[in-house]
Design goal:
The structure holds two protein chains of two kinds. Chain A is mainly alpha-helical. Chain A contains twelve helices and no strands. Chain A has one domain: Orthogonal Bundle (MetI-like fold), CATH 1.10.3720.10. The longest helix of chain A is centred in the middle third of the chain and has 37 residues. The two termini of chain A are 39 Å apart. The relative contact order of chain A is 0.14. By secondary structure, chain B is an alpha/beta fold. Chain B has two domains: 178 residues, P-loop containing nucleotide triphosphate hydrolases (Rossmann fold, 3-Layer(aba) Sandwich); 73 residues, no CATH class. Chain B is globular and about 65 Å long. The chains are: A mainly alpha, B alpha/beta. At the A-B interface, helix 9 and helix 10 of A face helix 2, helix 3, helix 4 and helix 5 of B.
Chain lengths: 301, 340
């Protein structure tokens, strides 16, 4: 008797559970967890984000801008972990404050390039014909100008500010995604499941974005994480030559540019921002590699 | 022999003089050259023929899914439940595909999207045609899965986690999710092993009876036709050469090609005797002969067969054969030895 009720209870839980979807996200996460490189990258990025939040809460603009001429070129110490710069400002605070620029540029410029580029790349690859010709030729023109130069031109036209830096790097990110998305869509669009989707009455545009694109998304995500690294570098580079965030603000590239003048006197001025740039780009690359493996459902066991 | 419950004069599909060519740079492949047939509610017709006979192109044309270019529908009308498929705009076609007429593809390994869980793929088909919420559609998907014999809790799994037979059942679930009036099955069991074949065929039969779906079964397997179909249309080089009820075609075979098909079947009761395959290759669809396309391979062929297109002869109200030899009232094929 008890056995029967127990069995009924079991089948009841089964029945209620059967309607729940298994989350693809959880499975991908479980696979990502087993990849030490990706976890290292993720942890570094999380620490960076936490530092950024910390800087928003506890470091004011005055803290990083106020000049203290009696405190110049102090080497790293307990009071100033990264030492002080040519104007006696605490480099630790300035570097931490700078995370907001690099992370924002890295994330938003890639997100912008990704959304615009993947949209047009998918359209070009899936529909072909004159639509493809126009999109690809425009993208070729954009790709033919070196990213750094394009960024400089855009900033020169719009004027140096953080937002313009973001737009400049975002635009230079587009063409890579267009070509990447088109190539992976081309390799998928002849599949039989595309035909099958037509046979159940799906519209072409919906097939392109709901059936074909998910199959080509993993190389795009890997590219995107790699592009975050290069975008952080590009932002630092543009700031280094004075085309990025206006000077007194502590963007990492600007910090290095500032420290360059005192390289023999106070090497820590270039070292610490350099380490931060390296950590962020390295972490992004590692995470990108891990994501590629984790997002591929064919590897699921 | 006709089951009363499935006899209903409502015509759900009418194909009239369908001609489909693939126009390539250097040559024109004449895939379908004047195919006509009709299908009434709940009945099933088998399209039989060798590879390259135009069966799949006919099926794709019915859905208006012939890839263009290079495919060109030269002439013909296709009427699906009152809709003229060849005249509709894409938006209207999308409403009919999957709702009135659905298709199961040959290869279950490649016909499912590898990155979308099967439950979502079935639900997608429901959401396209019915005004239901995402969770209602998903519930329906789970029901459909159970209907085809797959536990509902597997709905969240991906196609690669299923075996070939189960994937084919998922495809059937997708095709039948909106209860279409016509189901086209394009060699649904070719890629499966025999034990699974029988399961899948039985299931298609059960679901067909349950929903009253009309079925077009495309196959080269006469055994499948015998099991599944009420009517048979034998195709050769893009034309239907013999058409009739299952009994007409199987027990009163008229066309030499149909005879050849039966003679090339191995028969377990006549072990040791040689098979009699049809000599030669299927006609090259880029260079079809003037006369009967089968004449070069036909042992009854006369000069008349080679010179002018074959004539159509009505044997009985349901039985048609397209063969010039029957101009001579005394002609008959030698007949194939009745199988058990």
């Amino acid at each position: 008797m008890t056995a029967v009720t127990q069995k009924q209870g079991q089948s009841a839980t089964l029945a209620s559970r059967r309607y729940k979807k298994k989350s693809g996200f959880v499975e991908s996460w479980n696979r990502l967890k087993t990849n030490p490189g990706a976890m290292f990258g993720l942890i570094v990025l999380i620490i960076m984000v936490l530092l950024m939040i910390y800087s928003f809460l506890f470091i004011t603009k005055d803290d990083v801008m106020a000049i203290n001429s009696g405190n110049r070129f102090k080497p790293p110490s307990a009071q100033h972990p990264f030492g002080t710069d040519s104007m006696g400002r605490d480099l630790f605070k300035r570097t931490i404050y700078g995370t907001r620029y690099s992370l924002t540029v890295g994330f938003f410029s890639v997100a912008f390039g990704f959304i615009v580029g993947v949209f047009f790349g998918t359209i070009a690859g899936y529909f072909g014909g004159w639509v493809e010709e126009i999109i690809m030729r425009v993208s070729d023109v954009m790709a033919s100008i070196p990213g750094m130069l394009l960024g400089m031109v855009i900033v020169a036209v719009l004027g140096p500010s953080f937002l313009n830096l973001l737009i400049a790097i975002g635009i230079s990110n587009i063409s890579g995604f267009v070509r990447m998305a088109r190539a992976s869509v081309l390799s998928v669009k002849g599949s039989e499941f595309v035909e099958a989707a037509r046979a159940i009455g799906m519209s072409e545009i919906r097939i392109a974005f709901s059936q074909v694109l998910p199959n080509s998304i993993s190389p795009l995500i890997v590219t995107a994480t790699a592009r975050i690294a290069t975008s952080v570098l590009a932002a630092a580079g543009l700031s280094f030559i004075g085309f990025g965030v206006p000077v007194p603000l502590p963007e990492w590239g600007a910090l290095i540019s500032d420290g360059r003048n005192y390289l023999s006197l106070a090497p820590h001025l270039t070292l610490f921002p350099g380490i931060f740039i390296m950590l962020v780009t390295f972490a992004c690359s590692l995470l990108g590699d891990g994501l590629r493996d984790a997002l591929d459902p064919k590897l699921k066991q | 022999m006709i089951d009363e419950s499935t006899t209903n004069s409502e015509v759900v599909l009418e194909v009239e003089d369908l001609v489909v060519h693939y126009e390539l740079k250097n040559e024109t492949v004449k895939a379908v050259n004047g195919v006509s047939f009709s299908l009434t509610k709940g009945r099933s017709i088998g399209l039989v023929g060798e590879t390259g006979a135009g069966k799949t192109t006919t099926a794709l044309a019915i859905m208006n899914l012939v890839p263009k270019p290079p495919g060109v529908i030269k002439s013909g009308t296709i009427d699906v439940c009152g809709y003229k498929m060849l005249e509709l705009k894409p938006k209207q076609l999308e409403k009919i595909r999957g709702k009135e007429i659905s298709m199961i593809f040959q290869d279950p390994m490649t016909s499912l999207n590898p990155v979308i869980p099967v439950g979502d793929q079935i639900a997608e088909s429901v959401r396209l045609h019915e005004n239901v919420s995402a969770s209602q559609a998903y519930d329906r998907a789970v029901e459909m899965l159970e209907l085809v014999g797959i536990p509902g809790e597997r709905a969240g799994e991906y196609p690669h986690q299923f075996s070939g037979g189960m994937r084919q059942r998922v495809l059937i679930a997708i095709a039948l999710a909106c209860n279409p009036r016509i189901l086209i099955a394009d060699e649904p069991t070719t890629a499966l092993d025999v034990t699974i074949q029988a399961q899948v065929l039985n299931m298609i039969n059960d679901l067909k009876k349950k929903f009253g779906t009309a079925l077009i079964m495309i196959t080269h397997d006469l055994g499948v036709v015998a099991k599944m179909c009420d009517d048979v249309a034998v195709m050769y080089a893009g034309r239907i050469v013999e058409k009739g009820t299952l009994e007409d075609v199987f027990n009163d075979t008229k066309h030499p090609y149909t005879e050849g098909l039966f003679n090339s079947l191995p028969d377990i009761s006549k072990k040791g005797t040689d098979l009699k395959p049809i000599p030669g290759q299927i006609a090259d669809p880029t260079r079809l002969p003037e006369g009967c396309a089968f004449a070069p391979r036909c042992r009854y062929a006369t000069d008349a067969c080679r010179e002018k297109p074959p004539t159509i002869h009505q044997i009985s109200p349901t039985h048609f054969v397209e063969c010039t030899a029957y101009d001579d009232p005394g002609f008959h094929i030698e007949g194939w030895q009745n199988h058990g």
